[in-house]
Specification:
heterodimer; A: alpha/beta; Rossmann fold; 6-stranded mixed β-sheet; 8 helices; about 35% helix; globular; B: about 425 residues; alpha/beta; 10-stranded mixed β-sheet; 10 helices; about 20% helix; about 35% strand; binds adenosine-5'-diphosphate; binds magnesium ion
């Protein structure tokens, strides 16, 4: 929701990034304020996941230009774990499986690490167990998932729920959800969306990366951005998503080209 | 009076010095035991210390061992329970303690639960012992087994009577206290038909200078017996640890071993499992966790000599610093051992650029109706997994520790003694924490 006098959480200016020497992000601009929900849509390969990973600090992506301020701080001065502790959270498009690490142990360790960094109390295993089970209810997750190895053998939908569970535990200021909706059946989509809506408040912000307008029936965005070839080329309200759904992306780039020609 | 004499035929050198330096052992009243020792002394005279030119030792250079001189353990240190309590395992109600190879009755405690547990001296009159001691871990071609047998004096004997299930694990604690001492731990476990027992063989140190442990363990399972064998090698950082274990499986018996190698500058463990009758099962699991300049070599041989045998093997090495791990896993399927079902996996994690592993499966299959699989991997921590954990707030070192621990935990979790499992899990976590 758009609030008056809200604080700027994320300010991206002219961001350029490359992977293996190939430039993927080519001057990306985006401003996100607290309380807002943004959707980034765009064709496959336009750089949406690259942008998400750059924000989270993945070392495979080299930032070659531009700036990103997170709550006024230069994000690139922080290593990935510092970003997480400061409140940046990425729900991965493809969550990683970690055989041999029990989900409960992983969740408790990350929770306690972040709590300690924020000067809050840690929970012992019993306390944490109660706490995490409450959060799991929100996502209609079976507690059996605590005993299993992190994401190992989880279905696509179960992995996505586990991502949102982590988000619920870590209470980020900025959550980037990279195609959290893809691969979800309609029930799972509803559950995950309810979870996200429940977590959204006036002090945090959500960036939803998605292919489909479908998700936006459940989580209503304040802004919809269209990404193409490493840039945001159009920004609109929630009705833009519907237009993209019916008309595809081509008209957006055509419109942009025409506008640039006029300008030239 | 009979004493063990060093024959004049022994060549000058390292073995001679080891033999000569040893105090003369008092003769046993048992003629067979004296003969066994004398035969072993003879073999030491014939055999030589292996070098890199020996196929079985080609990755493991033990020349540093032969450059040091080891003296026999002198009068063992007077230890008090408080010195060693931290090594106790709460589930074990029977504990035999050997200090520098010498039995320490004042530190040991034996529960009266029907399992016979004793030092060799007290129990050697049992006929079964003569039939087994030195008969499984043969020393004809093995100089270290020969040396151990030449100095056979104190030894842990465990006999589990017919159809008895031991209520608690038996803990054998071998403690090294003297620098430059050589000790010869020895163990014989006889599991009679239908019996079941858990044995913990545990090597620890109270000092960090160089010493030499040369151990031999023999385990015989009669028909339908079950043995869980946990072996923990946590010797001092400069120790040399060379051990041979021979296991004999009778009809439908089941043997499970978990061996964990953490300590010693150079360690070598040879485990030979012989399936002597039909329908046996063995599971052989191992973990080596080493760093700095350690070398840990595990050689196993599972010998399917009879039909319908099952073997499962999983060996893992976590290698940091400039350490070197060796695994050689031989699976022998003899002619006629039809319907053998065997699998072997060797997984290795290198934590640094100068860590090194040599892993070699060795399948020798002479029967046609068998199922044998094997596989080996050598890798580093997965950078995507590390990033995932860091993106959730864990420091890079915490992330790496967690993943390293998880790699080893699969083996640790197979230890059927909760307190030991927990303690080793902590050890793995701590040891990975200090890895570069
Ligand atoms: N790790 C990588 N290595 C090589 N190329 C990559 C890597 N990650 C992304 N790319 C390339 O960058 C472009 C953008 O990919 P991505 O950010 O995943 O797009 P989207 O999420 O919008 O589908 C694609 O051409 C893709 O092949
Ligand atoms: Mg993507």
């Amino acid at each position: 929701m758009i609030y008056r006098d809200s604080k700027t959480i994320l300010e991206v200016r002219g961001l350029r990034a490359s992977v293996d020497g190939v430039e993927i992000l080519k001057g990306l601009d985006l401003t996100v304020k607290s309380g807002e929900v943004h959707a980034i849509m765009g064709p496959n390969g336009s750089g949406k996941s690259t942008f998400s990973k750059v924000l989270a600090g993945h070392s495979a992506y080299e930032v070659t230009g531009g700036s990103v301020l997170f709550e006024g701080r230069n994000l690139f001065e922080l290593v990935p774990e510092e970003r997480a502790r400061a409140g940046v959270f990425l729900a991965f498009q493809y969550p990683i499986e970690i055989p041999g690490v029990a989900n409960s142990q992983f969740l408790r360790l990350t929770y306690n690490t972040v709590q300690a960094q924020r000067g809050r109390d840690e929970l012992d295993p019993l306390e944490f167990d109660d706490f995490v089970r409450e959060k799991m209810k929100l996502l209609e997750m079976n507690p059996d998932f605590l005993e299993r190895s992190v994401n190992e053998g989880f279905s696509g939908g179960e992995k996505k729920r586990n991502e949102i569970l982590q988000m619920a535990l870590l209470e980020p200021r900025l959550a980037i959800l990279d195609e959290t909706d893809s691969g979800l059946d309609i029930d799972a989509l509803r559950i995950v969306s309810n979870g996200v809506n429940h977590l959204a408040n006036k002090d945090n912000a959500m960036v939803l990366v998605t292919h489909y307008q479908r998700l936006l029936n459940y989580i209503v965005p304040d802004y919809v951005h269209v990404m193409e070839a490493g840039r945001i080329i159009k920004t609109g309200g929630k009705e833009l998503a519907l237009e993209l759904e019916t008309r595809g992306y081509d008209w957006v780039s055509a419109e942009r080209k025409a506008a640039m020609e006029v300008a030239a | 009076m009979n004493t063990v004499r060093v024959p004049a035929t022994i060549a000058e050198g390292y073995l001679e010095s080891l033999l000569a330096g040893q105090p003369r052992l008092p003769a046993s009243p048992l003629a067979w035991l004296n003969k066994l020792r004398a035969d072993a002394v003879d073999r030491v005279g014939v055999l030589t210390v292996p070098t890199l030119r020996d196929e079985e030792w080609r990755f493991t250079d033990i020349s540093p061992l032969t450059k040091l001189s080891f003296h026999p353990a002198s009068e063992p240190a007077r230890l008090h329970p408080a010195d060693i309590e931290r090594f106790y395992i709460e589930e074990a109600n029977t504990r035999l303690v050997f200090v520098d190879g010498v039995y320490a009755p004042q530190l040991s405690s034996v529960a009266a639960d029907g399992v016979v547990v004793a030092n060799l001296g007290a129990a050697a009159t049992d006929r079964a012992i003569a039939a087994h001691l030195g008969q499984h871990a043969t020393f004809h071609d093995n100089v270290f087994a020969a040396l151990n047998t030449a100095f056979l004096h104190d030894a842990a004997l465990i006999m589990v009577p017919h159809n008895m299930t031991a209520g608690a694990p038996v803990h054998l604690l071998f403690i090294a206290t003297q620098r430059e001492a050589a000790s010869y731990p020895r163990c014989l476990l006889l599991a009679e038909s239908g019996s079941a027992v858990t044995l913990i063989e545990d090597y620890v140190a109270l000092q960090e200078a160089a010493y030499f442990t040369n151990a031999v363990t023999e385990i015989a399972l009669a028909d339908n017996a079950r043995v869980d064998h946990i072996r923990v090698q946590r010797e001092g950082a400069q120790a040399f640890h060379i051990a041979n274990c021979a296991v004999s499986l009778a009809r439908a018996s089941r043997y499970h071993s978990v061996s964990v190698a953490l300590g010693a500058r150079i360690s070598r463990y040879d485990l030979n499992v012989l399936q002597t009758a039909e329908g046996t099962q063995c599971t052989v699991d191992g973990l080596a966790l080493i760093a700095n300049n350690q070398l840990a070599d595990t050689h196993t041989c599972i010998d399917h000599a009879q039909p319908h045998g099952v073997s499962r093997q999983q060996h893992k090495c976590i290698v940091g610093g400039s350490a070197h791990a060796v695994f050689n896993g031989k699976i022998m399927v003899r002619p006629g051992a039809q319907r053998t079902d065997s699998s072997q996996a060797s997984h290795n994690l290198l934590l640094s650029g100068s860590a090194h592993v040599d892993t070699k499966p060795q399948l020798e299959i002479f029967a046609d109706d068998v199922k044998c699989t094997h596989g080996a991997t050598v890798g580093q921590l997965d950078s995507e997994e590390v990033f995932y954990l860091r993106s959730r707030g864990l420091s890079e070192s915490a992330a790496r520790n967690m993943l390293t621990y998880a790699f080893g935990a699969e083996i640790i979790e197979r230890i059927p003694v909760a307190s030991l499992r927990h303690r080793l899990a902590q050890t793995v976590l701590q040891q990975t924490t200090i890895q570069p």
